[in-house]
Write a structure and sequence with these properties.
Shape of chain B: elongated
Number of strands of chain A: 0
Largest interface: A-B, 20 and 21 residues
Radius of gyration of chain A: 13 Å
Number of strands of chain B: 13
Strand order of the largest sheet of chain B: 2-1-4-5-6
Largest sheet of chain A: none
Largest sheet of chain B: 5 strands, antiparallel
Distance between the termini of chain A: 19 Å
Radius of gyration of chain B: 43 Å
Oligomer: heterodimer
């Protein structure tokens, strides 16, 4: 499972901001929304 | 300037009310159920500033009232207001104007409002480290990131299991199959070359031109044949789709079973809920009766106290100053004794009734929370499961549709392949017819071997293709797993860093507040950087734990911790509310501590139903009493 680290670049600043927005908006089903967000980030890194 | 609170129909405060709080310590003093907590709840409602549940909103609006409001005007004249309105379907709606009081509402809710049943007080009173740590994580925002970390961890674990399961499927080593395919391919090429050599030798041909044309035709048909075969290889994952459908259908069955159970549980929950609601009604009536009895006794006690006062005036006199009649001093003394005994009886009875009332109120709260818990259960659970079932059914339908399409296309391709195969056979037959009879058998034999080798290679291709596809999927999931791991690592580190920073800030603030600790007769309170664990050092330098402290000492620690953390996290928030948390405290130390805090905070508002030891004259002069 030793993928090249360069291939796995994640924009953590953007992710932090998006999570902050979910909390700020007092989103319903917060945890499933966070999970969706994380899955999206993972897909983007893998597919992109 | 003062902080003005105007409200209407909030909790136990029916109708319009207005309160003005001066800077410093404000003490709300009145018997139980007279509206102290409702007034503090009004602050809470303004400060909380987040979506409240329907049952919470219903608790805030006075029963049977269609609307209410809370308006707070701060010292600069800025107004913050919320309104509660009951609509036609008995739902309570909340609307608010801009909130000027608080800067960080979510934390204000927890930090500006210390009450008897708050998490920090409950945690400290029961010396429960987990509750204490959770509270710290909440108020320092660590929980937000801890939550994300937990979700990322969960995702990472799920992906790891997926990777492991994909690896399990790939247990067979594909290397030998690939080598075998290469060998077969070489054999095939050798046989084809041999056939080609015979067929293309003009000496062996009857009609050279026709064979040339037939070979061209065969090449074209062969090309089509191989294209169709390659497309057919793509269908090797049909089994996986079937397996996925099967898993999802099993999940649907499990959920439907669960839903059925919940539906039947729902009926019993409904009955149970009605029972608890009835209990709330019964207890409310009993509490009401006790209140009437207490008021009656208070009146009787006041009359008795007045009579005693009158008798005391006559105690040392022999003649009545009003009617000049002789006074029997012995009789007066006897009557005084009798009145004193009656007065003691009234006080004792009043205390007894107060205790009964407090017990019933605590029972009522339990019954209310049970009823609420059951109401929530009835309201939400089945819907969530039904939604999940619908989602799964939709997915199964989509998979089935795609499988149907796949099957349809596979049948089409198989038909086309069969057709091309017949075409191929027919052309080959014609080529054979055009060869000298001496080579016909040889060619036929070679073609048979070529066909068999072709079938063997085809079988190996299916196997290798399946492996390659699975391998590609495995690599993708490994990559996913690595990303999820990176995310969870990031949030784990973030949680650790924020926790360390917050602990340092709080510890610094605790260090600076040695005067406050001194008033609580403590040398030091510190937090452990890894677990928000409280360490307490007494004046004699010995270390102690919450378990070893008295209830009053723990209550003091709760006030100190809550105040210090609020000071660290919300230094500009002007309001701090303490609701009944102080009932077990030692009055002198409590008074000193409140005095200290009120010098640092603009508005310290404390509610307390029982009077302090001694009368209000013994308290600091800057304490402002509000009797409700």
């Amino acid at each position: 499972m030793n993928n090249n680290e360069d291939e796995l670049k994640i924009d953590f600043q953007k992710l932090d901001q998006e999570i902050f927005n979910l909390y700020k908006k007092k989103t319903k089903n917060l945890n499933s929304e966070i999970e969706k967000l994380l899955k999206g980030v993972i897909d983007n890194v893998v597919e992109g | 300037m003062s902080l003005k609170v105007e409200l209407q129909n909030i909790g136990g405060l029916r109708g319009k009310h207005s309160f003005s709080f001066e800077k410093g310590l404000n003490v709300l003093k009145s018997p139980n159920a007279s509206g102290k907590s409702s007034l503090l709840n009004a602050f809470y409602l303004i400060l909380a500033n987040e979506s409240l549940s329907q049952s919470e909103l219903k608790d805030y609006l006075t029963d049977n009232e269609v609307g209410g409001y809370v308006r707070i005007t701060d010292e600069q004249g800025q107004k913050s207001e919320i309104r509660l309105t009951r609509n036609a379907s008995d739902e309570v709606e909340l609307s608010r104007s801009e909130i000027n009081i608080s800067t960080e509402p979510r934390l204000n809710q927890i930090l500006s409002f210390l009450r008897e049943k708050s998490k920090i007080n409950a945690g400290i009173q029961s010396a429960d480290e987990l509750i204490i740590e959770n509270w710290f994580q909440d108020v320092t925002n660590v929980n937000k990131y801890h939550n994300v970390w937990t979700i990322a961890q969960d995702l990472s674990q799920k992906l790891e299991s997926k990777v492991e399961s994909l690896k399990g499927k790939q247990s067979e080593d594909i290397g030998p199959s690939q080598n075998l395919r290469e060998d077969k391919e070489q054999q095939l090429q050798a046989l084809q070359a041999e056939k080609e050599k015979i067929v293309s030798d003009p000496n062996n041909q009857k009609n050279e031109r026709e064979i040339k044309e037939l070979n061209k035709e065969l090449e074209k048909v062969d090309e089509d044949f191989n294209k169709i075969k390659a497309e057919l290889l793509e269908f090797s994952n049909e089994g996986d789709v079937k397996e996925e459908i099967k898993i999802k259908e099993t999940n649907i069955e499990t959920l439907e079973e669960k839903l059925k159970n919940i539906e039947s549980e729902r009926e019993s929950s409904q009955i149970e809920r009605q029972k608890w609601e009835q209990r709330v009604i019964d207890l409310t009536k009993k509490i009401q009766n006790l209140k009437i009895q207490i008021t009656q006794i208070k009146n009787d006690r006041a009359k008795c106290a007045d009579s005693l006062k009158d008798k005391k005036k006559l105690k040392d006199r022999s003649v009545c100053p009003l009617c000049n009649s002789q006074i029997d001093r012995a009789e007066t003394a006897r009557q005084m004794k009798e009145l004193e005994a009656t007065l003691d009886g009234f006080i004792e009875e009043e205390e007894k009734l107060e205790r009964q009332k407090n017990n019933l109120e605590s029972d009522k709260k339990t019954a209310q929370s049970k009823a609420k818990e059951l109401a929530d259960k009835i309201k939400y659970s089945p819907q969530k499961i039904s939604d999940e079932i619908q989602k799964l059914k939709k997915e199964v339908q989509e998979l089935k549709n795609s499988l149907k399409e796949t099957k349809k296309r596979r049948t089409e391709l198989e038909g086309a392949l069969e057709e091309k195969n017949s075409e191929k056979n027919a052309i080959e037959e014609r080529i054979r017819e055009n060869l000298n009879p001496a080579f016909k058998d040889k060619i036929e034999k070679l073609e048979k071997e070529i066909r068999n080798l072709g079938l063997e290679i085809e079988e190996l291709d299916v196997k290798i293709n399946k492996f390659l596809k699975e391998n590609e999927e495995l690599r993708k999931f490994e990559k996913r797993y690595n990303v999820a791991n990176k995310i969870q690592d990031y949030y784990r580190t973030k949680v650790e860093i924020i926790r360390k920073i917050m602990v340092k800030k709080i510890n610094d603030q605790l260090e600076k507040s040695f005067e406050l600790l001194n008033l609580a007769e403590l040398e030091r309170i510190t937090l452990d950087p890894d677990h928000f664990k409280i360490t307490i050092q007494r004046k004699d330098k010995s270390y102690t734990s919450l378990e070893k402290m008295s209830g009053a000492e723990r209550a003091l620690i709760a006030v100190i911790i809550s105040y210090i953390v609020k000071k660290t996290v919300l230094p500009n928030d002007p309001i701090f509310l303490i609701d009944e948390v102080t009932s077990e405290m030692d009055d002198t130390r409590f008074k000193d501590i409140l005095d200290y805090i009120s010098n640092e905070i603009l508005y310290l508002i404390v509610s307390r139903h029982s009077p302090y030891q001694g009368e209000r004259e013994t308290l600091t002069p800057n304490m402002i009493y509000h009797e409700i």
